[in-house]
């Protein structure tokens, strides 16, 4: 009996879905390179100009400055080599300058005094949550001419920790990892660290250095470059804590970055190169689709919000305030300026803000289903890989 047009189209749809899924899972073993958007360190050698040595900063760990493409893949650094520059201008050395995390310096003001190795921490921000499988670490590979700097200043052991959120100190340890030494006599590939047997979800990754290859407690310990292999998870723009919803925690995190002297670029919502009040306005009015003054973020600015903020008793108080306590202009105080910020928006007692989106966003749950399939497939492909020792 011949098929009806509806039956044909339905069968065709199922065949296309099956073929697409087969192709999708068959090629998923090629997980993507994930390049951190920023990096901080307890210390770095700093801006020193001595015999051509200068600007040895933590940011050099993610800028690709010392990488050499050998396989014609300029858009993927995972198979690149790192050079063995004698002055090591394209890597990170610990030293006497804070690089975003307090502690770890030798604290004598002399950049040529070696810093304590075990106090060194590197923190990489991936910009959003990602499924991670491996870390690619190019070891210290400095050519010291007659000095064997590379095998002395390289990292021996370090603990790797991950956090699923964009800020704070909530980290989970993945264990202690050992790196192999490099000699500084030739360009070298990355050393691959298998992070875990099962996929891990991370927004930030920390390297807490334990020891240098020299065995000395104080040493100019360093690394060349760092990348990760995995897949970015679907994200909700403005969801800075990875909770899956836009809430007061997110606007408070954004406000803190706006106040920061060195804001994290992953908080630049409008991609204008700045993290400022324009990003707060975008978060409130476009992403959360509400008004300044909506203390409980229920989508309306009304009398219930005023009751909530006055109940918190932060108005003109010494104590710091956040969004739900009346700090709508982001200065950590609840003052008359916050009322100006809220009422100038004209949303009081108007009900929900009109939704200006003409095209609905894709279903978040559907994206997660696709990524669950990716997690499973990549896990199968990577199950047997391990190239560097987990101590």
User: Pairing-aware structural class of the strands and helices?
Assistant: alpha+beta
- Coarse shape: elongated
The total beta strand count reads 13
CATH arch. level architecture of the largest domain: Sandwich
Radius of gyration: 25 Å
Q: Work out the oligomeric state of the chains in this entry.
A: single chain
Number of domain units:
2
Beta-strand portion reads 15-25%
CATH topology of the largest domain: Jelly Rolls
| H/E element sequence | HEEEEEEEHEEEEEEHHHHH
In the CATH scheme, the class of the largest domain would be: Mainly Beta
CATH H-level superfamily title of the largest domain: Galactose-binding domain-like
**Low-confidence region ranges:** 1-28, 357-366
Mean pLDDT: 83
Total helical elements: 7
């Amino acid at each position: 009996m011949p098929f009806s047009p509806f039956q044909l189209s339905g069968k065709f749809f199922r065949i296309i879905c099956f073929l697409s899924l087969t192709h999708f899972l068959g090629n998923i073993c090629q997980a993507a390179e994930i390049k951190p958007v920023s990096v901080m360190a307890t210390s770095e050698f700093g801006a020193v100009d001595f015999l051509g040595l200068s600007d040895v900063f933590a940011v050099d760990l993610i800028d690709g400055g010392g990488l050499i493409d050998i396989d014609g893949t300029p858009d993927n650094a995972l198979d690149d080599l790192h050079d063995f520059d004698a002055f090591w201008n394209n890597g990170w050395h610990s030293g006497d300058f804070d690089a975003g995390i307090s502690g770890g310096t030798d604290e004598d003001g002399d950049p040529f005094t070696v810093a304590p190795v075990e106090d060194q921490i590197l923190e990489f921000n991936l910009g959003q949550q990602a499924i991670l499988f491996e870390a690619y670490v190019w070891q210290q590979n400095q050519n010291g001419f007659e000095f064997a700097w590379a095998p002395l200043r390289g990292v021996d052991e370090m603990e790797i920790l991950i956090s699923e959120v964009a800020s704070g100190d909530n980290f989970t340890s993945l264990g202690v990892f050992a790196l192999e030494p490099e000699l500084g006599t030739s360009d070298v590939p990355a050393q691959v660290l298998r992070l875990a047997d099962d996929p891990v979800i991370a927004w930030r990754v920390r390297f807490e250095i334990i020891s240098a290859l020299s065995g000395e407690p104080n040493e100019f310990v360093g690394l060349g470059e760092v990348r990760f292999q995995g897949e970015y998870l679907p994200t909700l723009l403005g969801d800075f804590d990875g909770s899956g919803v836009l809430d007061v925690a997110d606007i408070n995190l954004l406000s803190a970055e706006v106040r920061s002297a060195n804001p994290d670029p992953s908080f630049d919502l409008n991609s204008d190169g700045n993290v400022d009040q324009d990003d707060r306005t975008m978060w409130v009015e476009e992403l959360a689709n509400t008004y300044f003054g909506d203390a409980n973020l229920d989508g309306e600015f009304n009398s219930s919000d005023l009751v909530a903020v006055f109940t918190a008793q932060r108005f003109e108080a010494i104590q710091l305030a956040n969004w739900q306590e009346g700090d709508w202009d982001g200065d950590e105080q609840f003052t008359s300026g916050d009322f100006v910020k809220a009422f100038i928006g004209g949303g009081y007692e108007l009900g929900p803000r009109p939704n200006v989106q003409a095209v609905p966003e894709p279903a978040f749950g559907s994206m997660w289903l696709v990524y669950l399939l990716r997690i499973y497939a990549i896990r199968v492909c990577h199950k047997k890989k391990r190239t560097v020792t987990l101590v």
